[in-house]
Amino acid sequence: MTTNLLRSYDWNKLSNFLLFAAAEAGVVYTLSTTATTSIKDLAESRPKSPPLWMQLYVVKNRAGARTIIRNAEVNGYKALVITVDRPITGLQLSRWRNRIKLPPHLSTPNLADALKEANASAQTDIHSSKVQVIPPITWKDIARIKSITKLPLILKGILTVEDALKAVKYGVAAIWVSNHGGRQLDCVPTTLDALSKIAPALAGTGCEVYVDGGFRWGSDVLKALALGARAVFIGRPMLWALNHSVSPPSFKFENNTQL
Ligand SMILES: Cc1cc2nc3c(=O)[nH]c(=O)nc-3n(C[C@H](O)[C@H](O)[C@H](O)COP(=O)(O)O)c2cc1C
């Protein structure tokens, strides 16, 4: 499952629920930096053992980023997914029209240090220049992060062969072909088109290639695998499914933790 910031507006434990579903399905779950569940809480609530990965937005406050990385390490996360396609937040008209912001009873615990340092609010500032890296993340940041963690690095948001090959030079374990579900920038290439160029270029390098964006059918997944992807990630469909057919109060973890 791909990383969703999961403002679980009415339901603070949405990430835990999705983790449980991932465990049942035997698939990786990736927790967002901006999730409303903490790295530690999610790891502790793990019902079985699906691999957990941590997504990293490189925040302005470098100590805040280090805290996220250390927390991921000590809580058994298996990889660090660095999102590189969100140097600034794209103009998302639906969010702007609906004036979406985090309700006061929720917080973004993984950004606590970064928010504190910036004297910023989880409700309004998590994607603002107060907290996010300005100027945007660079290859130097990738080298720096690699030097401070043993976790494998995955770069999420790569769309060109040039960047993919550069990522290999920087020693990343995998690249994740993604256009952020088309939510960041209009007119981005489709990820299947990008994958069809990137996967052959990386063949034999040892760097794995993943992909997400618009996968809705099993046949979509098969096409990506045939084009050279090692794995396919799913974002919105799991949110739609939850919205449509899950009644939170009736759901219980195996250990009877009521959601
Ligand atoms: C509500 C929502 C929140 C998202 N939050 C994040 C995030 O915090 N970090 C990130 O790297 N990508 C985020 N994404 C992008 C997804 O990880 C993923 O790239 C995209 O949703 C895949 O496309 P799909 O939804 O068509 O499967 C988000 C997407 C959605 C729909």
From TrEMBL:
Its cofactor is FMN. GO terms for cellular component: peroxisome. It holds the Pfam family FMN_dh. Residues 1-259 form the FMN hydroxy acid dehydrogenase domain. It comes from the Eukaryota. GO terms for molecular function: (S)-2-hydroxy-acid oxidase activity; FMN binding. It catalyses: 2-hydroxyoctanoate + O2 = 2-oxooctanoate + H2O2; a (2S)-2-hydroxycarboxylate + O2 = a 2-oxocarboxylate + H2O2. InterPro entries: Aldolase_TIM, Alpha-hydoxy_acid_DH_FMN, FMN-dep_DH, FMN_HAD, FMN_hydac_DH_AS. PROSITE patterns: FMN_HYDROXY_ACID_DH_1 (PS00557), FMN_HYDROXY_ACID_DH_2 (PS51349). Keywords: Flavoprotein, FMN, Oxidoreductase. Belongs to the FMN-dependent alpha-hydroxy acid dehydrogenase family. This is Hydroxyacid oxidase 1. It comes from Trichonephila inaurata madagascariensis. The gene is Hao1.
